[in-house]
Design goal:
The complex is a heterodimer of chains A (254) and B (216). By secondary structure, chain A is an alpha/beta fold. Chain A contains nine helices and ten strands. In chain A, strands 6-7-8-3-9-10 form a six-stranded mixed beta sheet, with helices on both faces. Chain A has a four-stranded antiparallel beta sheet with strand order 2-1-4-5, covered by helices on one side. Chain A is globular and about 55 Å long. The two termini of chain A are 16 Å apart. Chain B has a single domain (6-215), classed as MetI-like (MetI-like fold, Orthogonal Bundle), CATH 1.10.3720. In chain B, helix 6 packs antiparallel against helix 8. Classes of the chains: A alpha/beta (254), B mainly alpha (216). Chain A: Belongs to the ABC transporter superfamily.
Chain lengths: 254, 216
């Protein structure tokens, strides 16, 4: 497998500085420091409960952090902030369980937010939606309901739905974990194409082939901490931490 | 005393419209109130959650007849004049609001959290999330129990007869006082209630089965 193509990165678009978060007494994030540049592709892995999902969910404030600073696209995320919508408009998210709206068709799923959040006219929203459905290779499913699609198709619709908002940053929270094995590839292919188009991406995933192929940096988290953040070459071949080596030993084929 | 005749039958059938009208008004009023209660109960504002919970507990924990008495007599004590029609409409609306509010709260809470998260992540605000994502899904779940409650409500309008509102049951009492043929009179009235309610019960059951099939 080839290492990621070198490409130029832009300004810093996400800053996490000394970020901490508790669930009651349990500390899920400990002193997380991370800068993400425009166009950068980051893969986050780690054992379950290591805080990787929580980390990206803090970036669009599905979860609130308790200490430290988070700045996304120039806006600092604060308690009780009023302009969180500005951030959410620019940050797309894809979930493990797809979370498509089951009562709406594929096309309606894609145009809801552009129309209601951005105020886009229906005709234009539909044009954009069909464009992105084309890009995720399912334009013919536009009139169907999510329940009529396979898991892989649903997840591709979910990606298209996010892209319809023209986000600057895309977050992926274990996008292939709920899929049958034969459907993982079709979703990863779409994600690879998206990465190649220059999208800034933070992906929580255990798909190490994907990490090797597209990631600029692979981050390993354990017990709420970032243990390692390296280029794929270094990460897979010469990881510094014993914990990383142990984790890789468990998930990589021998 | 006179015999029960066609005139009495027509009088009873004419009274059906008051039963239906009272049911309709109470259902509309109860729906508006119930929606507000359900939204407060599931919302983020703690005071409203408590108020809604208190309202539901109070109205589910007291007999409807007491609620109708209070709706009829309390405004009088406070110096407002309410006729039996207004008192019955207000009492039944509040009663319906409590029960529908609780039914709809349940339906809203059954909508998976992922639906909220996905719509939040897309930038939708609470009102838009409710209107376009959550309520359309909750409505489907809520239709069978709502229709089921409507049947209860139609039958409950008979209690309005006690505060003097002339609907079907009160009309029956009037006819019976004149004819003293209780079996015929009340049997006929029971049949009329049944004819109104039974199709609704059937409809409710059919919707419920359809929902079960859909969720498989």
């Amino acid at each position: 497998m080839s290492a990621s193509q070198p490409h130029t990165l832009g300004d810093v678009v996400v800053t996490m500085a000394g970020v901490g978060k508790w669930y009651g007494d349990f500390k899920v994030l400990k002193d997380v420091n991370l800068d993400v540049r425009r166009g950068e592709r980051i893969v986050i892995c780690g054992p379950s409960g290591s805080g990787k999902s929580t980390l990206i969910r803090c970036l669009n404030r599905l979860e609130e952090h308790n200490e430290g600073r988070i700045v996304v696209d120039g806006i600092e995320l604060r308690h009780g902030m009023r302009d969180i919508d500005k951030v959410r408009r620019e940050v797309g998210m894809v979930f493990q369980s797809f979370n498509l709206f089951p009562h709406l068709t594929v096309l309606e799923n894609c145009i809801l937010a552009p129309m209601k959040v951005r105020g886009t006219a229906r005709a234009e929203a539909e044009r954009t939606a069909r464009l992105y459905l084309e890009r995720v290779h399912i334009p013919e499913q536009a009139g169907k309901y999510p329940g009529q699609l396979s898991g892989g198709q649903q997840q591709r619709v979910a990606i298209a739905r996010s892209l319809c908002m023209n986000p600057r940053i895309m977050l992926f929270d274990e996008p292939t974990s709920a899929l049958d094995p034969e459907m993982v590839k079709e979703v990863l292919d779409v994600m690879v194409e998206l990465a190649e188009s220059g999208m800034t991406m933070l992906c929580v995933t255990h798909e190490m082939g994907f990490a090797r192929k597209v990631a600029d940096r692979v981050i390993f988290m354990d017990r709420g901490e970032i243990v390692e953040a390296e280029t794929p070459d270094v990460f897979f071949d010469r990881p510094a931490s014993e914990r990383t080596r142990a984790f890789l030993g468990q998930i990589l084929p021998h | 005393m006179r015999d029960f005749g066609w005139g009495d039958t027509l009088f009873l059938i004419g009274a059906v419209r008051w039963t239906l009208l009272l049911s309709f008004v109470a259902f509309v009023g109860g729906s508006l109130g119930g929606l507000a209660v359900a939204l407060c109960r599931t919302g983020r504002i703690r005071v409203l959650r408590w108020l809604a919970a208190g309202f539901i507990t109070l109205f589910q924990g007291t007999p409807l007849l007491m609620q109708l008495f209070l709706a009829f007599f309390v405004p009088g004590i406070l110096g407002f004049d309410v006729d039996p029609w207004a008192a019955a409409a207000i009492g039944l609306s509040l009663h319906a609001a409590a029960f529908l509010g609780e039914i709809w709260r349940g339906a809203i809470e059954v909508v998976p959290r992922g639906q909220w998260e996905a719509s939040t992540a897309l930038g939708l605000r609470y009102a838009a999330q409710m209107r376009y994502v959550v309520l359309p899904q909750a409505v489907r779940i809520a239709v069978p129990p709502t229709v089921g409650f409507l049947v209860q409500l139609i039958k409950a309008t008979s209690l309005a007869s006690i505060i003097g509102f002339v609907e079907l049951t009160r009309a029956a009492q009037i006819v019976n006082n004149a004819t003293f043929q209780p079996f015929t009179v009340f049997g006929l009235v029971a049949l009329i209630y049944f004819i109104i309610c039974w199709p609704l019960s059937l409809y409710s059951r059919r919707m419920e089965q359809r929902l079960l099939v859909a969720s498989r």
